[in-house]
Amino acid sequence: MLIDLTQMKPGESGVVNEITSGHDAAKRIQNMGIIPGKGIRKVSSHFWRGPQTVNIGKLQIAVGFGMARKIIIEVDR
């Protein structure tokens, strides 16, 4: 099932499928280590439209809500 990062539940994991944004935003997302084919696990999200915290390998980062909506994840539900 394909969903964006904001729709993942904390503790859920999947694989980055694609980044649906313009070239500059996609480059920023990829520079954080979020690239298609890479495993990702959601740690937490803040109420409403706050940042989404994820683990990429051993790295834990927070992604803004707008950018998180452009990261498409393939999860098994």
Descriptive report:
- By secondary structure, this protein is an alpha+beta fold.
- It has a single domain (2-75), classed as SH3 type barrels.
- It is 17% helix and 42% strand.
- It has helices spanning 23-31, 65-68; strands at 2-4, 13-19, 39-45, 52-56, 59-63, 71-75.
- The protein has a six-stranded antiparallel beta sheet.
- The chain is globular, with a radius of gyration of 11 Å.
- The N and C termini lie close together (7 Å).
- The model has no long low-confidence stretch (mean pLDDT 95).
Key traits:
77 residues; globular; alpha+beta; 2 helices; SH3 type barrels; 17% helix; six-stranded antiparallel beta sheet; single chain
Care to give the gist of this entry?
This protein is 17% helix and 42% strand.
Topology of helices and strands:
Elements: E1 2-4, E2 13-19, H1 23-31, E3 39-45, E4 52-56, E5 59-63, H2 65-68, E6 71-75
Antiparallel strand pairs: 1-6, 2-3, 2-6, 3-4, 4-5
